[in-house]
Amino acid sequence: MIEETVNPFAPGDHGDYTAETNKPKIRVINGGARQEEQTEQEEAPPIGLGEWDAGDDTEAPPPRAWLLGNIFCRMFLSSLLGDGGVGKTAARIAQLLSLAIGRSLTGEHVFQRCRVLIVSLEDNRDELKRRVLAACLHHGIPLSELKGWLFLAAPGADGGKLMTIDRNGRLLRGEMAAKLEATIKARKIDIVSLDPFVKAHSVPENDNALIDDVVQVLTDLSAKYNIAVDVPHHMAKGAADPGNANKGRGASAMKDTGRLVYTLTTMSADEAKAFGIEDDQRRFYVRMDSAKVNITRHGKTKWFRLIGVRLGNETEMYPNGDEVQTVQPWNPPETWADLSSDLLNKILTAIDEGLPDGNRYSDSHNAKERVAWRVVQEHARDKTDAQAREIIKTWVKNGVLEHTTYTNPITRHPVKGLKVIDAKRP
Q1: How many CB atoms lie within 10 A of CB 312?
Q2: Is the residue at 277 inside a domain?
């Protein structure tokens, strides 16, 4: 009979080694005869890091493989953060359709036509079809143009999850990972979108380590198949905060791994006032802002208008059929073009602070050095006199600025000037 000592610290297939010496242990053979095994083994050459000498690196690397503007890129994870009902799915479907047909529907540049896979994890098959049909009808896309380029899936419970936790608390790779990979290979997919991210797994969403493992499945697929991966995600509860990547629901690991993260938020009441939009209409206007864009510079705010589209699927029981929303690009009136919220805030702050001599700015044509529209031009030099005047006029009309009576510190006479109402900002 052969007996062997066991080293509890040794990895299973790499021999039995003592923790102290990293040499083979002495084995007891045939009940007493002691035999010392070879104590000095030939060491394998160390495995390096694949490093290279930068001085020999004379060839420029290839450009990043952008697909749509600065939104989707091969080998990188994208996300769009937004509250439920804000138009997140409608915006993403329009952007993904742009890739499938090879021309832009949303204003971003299409670098190449792509095979697109949209996996709906919240809507069923019929609802996903309605959403895609609404976009196609509004933008005049025949379904024949999508043949071989757009693939849809609404697997429901049968699709499984990317990662799950078993009853013993162990992390397991779920069925969806294998199914997703098989579809990517079979359809030669260039970009896959899983909407929403929270439905793609069943691990605690506030656990950074576990969420990091979930996202790793997607980044591995993007690297293995040279594809772009998109995972629209819900925002945490609370006030909207355009451009804040930390507003994403759950663990920060998802945001940390993403390289192209944007937010989608409804036009605020103050923005509606600034743009001359009626308050009851502002919910149809949404803004997309760079939140975390690590591989390119942050872009300007992009606006979309939500459009209701009749699907033409009327029946005797439902004579009105369905109306489903899609998006189209929207630009603020020319007067307001290229004016970010930060820039507008700077202008309002300067107006509210007044002049160095203690006087306030005025919207009166006879105010001379106190005219408020000059402040607009100091911060936005491309605006004409008429546009600068229109901005001040709109702010007064919509209640962003109001007239106040104060004592002129020089003449000691009461005069009127402008101040920001309750420090409101667009």
Answers
A1: 9
A2: no
Quote the number of domains for the chain: 3
Residues 6 or more apart whose CB falls under 8 angstroms from that of 254 comprise 79, 197, 211, 214, 215, 231, 233, 248
Instruction: Of 185, 226, 182, 191, give the one whose Cα is nearest residue 114.
Output: 191
Q: Please indicate, yes or no, whether residues 114 and 259 belong to a single structural domain of this protein.
A: yes
Is 319 within a domain?
no
- 3-state SS record for 186-234: HHCCCEEEEECHHHHCCCCCCCHHHHHHHHHHHHHHHHHHCCEEECCEE
Q: Which residue type, as a one-letter code, is found at position 299? A: G
Are residues 24 and 90 both part of a single domain?
A: no
Q: In angstroms, rounded to a whole number, what is the distance separating the alpha carbons of residues 381 and 388? A: 10
Q: Is the whole model's pTM more than 0.70, yes or no? A: yes
Full domain range(s) for residue 91: 67-263+288-301+325-332
Give the pLDDT of the chain (426 residues) as one tens digit per residue. 444 444 433 444 434 433 344 443 334 434 444 444 444 556 777 788 989 899 998 889 899 999 999 999 999 999 999 988 899 999 999 999 999 999 999 999 999 999 999 999 999 999 999 999 999 999 999 999 999 999 999 999 899 999 999 888 889 999 999 999 999 999 999 999 999 999 999 999 899 999 999 999 999 999 999 999 999 998 887 777 888 888 788 888 887 888 899 999 999 887 887 787 888 999 999 999 988 876 677 678 899 999 999 999 999 999 999 999 999 999 888 888 888 878 998 999 999 999 999 999 999 888 888 999 999 999 998 898 888 998 998 888 888 899 999 998 888 999 999 999 865 545
3-class DSSP assignment, residue 292:
strand
Whether residue 401 sits in one domain with residue 357: yes
Angle, helices 88-101 vs 125-139, to 10°: value is 60
Residue 146's CATH number: 3.40.50.300
83 and 27 within one domain: no
